[in-house]
Amino acid sequence: FALLASVPPVFGLYTSFFPVLIYSLLGTGRHLSTGTFAILSLMTGSAVERLVSEPLVGNLSGIEKEQLDAQRVGVAAAVAFGSGALMLGMFVLQLGVLSTFLSEPVVKALTSGAALHVLVSQLPSLLGLSLPRQIGCFSLFKTLAAVLTALPRSSPAELTISALSLALLVPVKELNVRFRDRLPVPIPGEVVLVLLASVLCFTSSLDTRYHVQIVGLLPGGFPQPLLPNVAELPRILADSLPIALVTFAVSASLASIYADKYSYTIDSNQELLAHGASNLISSLFSCFPNSATLATTSLLVDAGGKTQLAGLFSCIVVLSVLLWLGPFFYYLPKAVLACINISSMRQMFCQM
């Protein structure tokens, strides 16, 4: 989802580490997983593209590309800082009571709509298409129209990878649900798929022979803590406010779904504090806006996670990738990641 936010992919890993760690300490949603979310990434990308657009000249030098990426990351982090500050202000004013207006039909509508946005955003990667980003009003329909128009140019290799990936993931998820009481641990279909796909792509040179899009190089380590450019805040306020509202609405909706399902309560004001702090603090580490996420929350629940200790465990996994395991994901096809995201939202699609 970092690409949807118009920043380099490694910043998606940072946004999958720092916010998760902070929410695990402050949040009240036991099953909630935070991090990158397609809708917020699209909204952030719109702000980034508006303020730091791609130069019209075709080829940029390495230094120019680094400078452009740094400017884009700076804008994305400033948006996260602004939205986090707004949510903390809502916490001070005790505006968590607004969650009472999120009735069950509204919650299901929000999460189903979000799932549809995620599905459409993943279609280009699923089909092996390189399409320009659609921003602004009706971007969902614009993206869908662009995908349908470009459908004849779909990559046969990536279509095959996507079909095989879904053919593995969907039955495994159904087995995990149906035999949940009999299995000591859920079958790790996603882990098996990532390993198989990476090995297959490496040994068969799918990226060079069939131009399969892969994750590529992930820089190791962490970015240096840096205060976002305060001068950008007035320019991004119009973007930070809707992002803060969407973050609270989606996160509160998702938390209430699982709280009702597993019979516990959430504190909506504490949720404002948790998400506000996770956005504001993580922006110091060049993270873009984050919230509760449909795909990873579903993954966490399917894997048997019942408390925020699962979030801390996922932080350890991301930390391992950042410090040591990044090179092993070099050959992972992006189509596989798209399939994992889509298959993880099975429950959200079923409630439509």
From TrEMBL:
It holds the Pfam family Sulfate_transp. One of its GO terms (cellular component) is membrane. Residues 1-349 form the SLC26A/SulP transporter domain. This is SLC26A10 isoform 4. The keyword Disulfide bond does not apply. The chain crosses the membrane at residues 7-26, 73-97, 241-259, 280-301, 307-332. It is a multi-pass membrane protein. It comes from the Eukaryota. The lineage of its organism: Eukaryota, Metazoa, Chordata, Craniata, Vertebrata. Its main location: membrane. GO terms for biological process: transmembrane transport. InterPro entries: SLC26A/SulP_dom (IPR011547), SLC26A/SulP_fam (IPR001902). Keywords: Membrane, Transmembrane, Transmembrane helix. It is found in: Membrane.
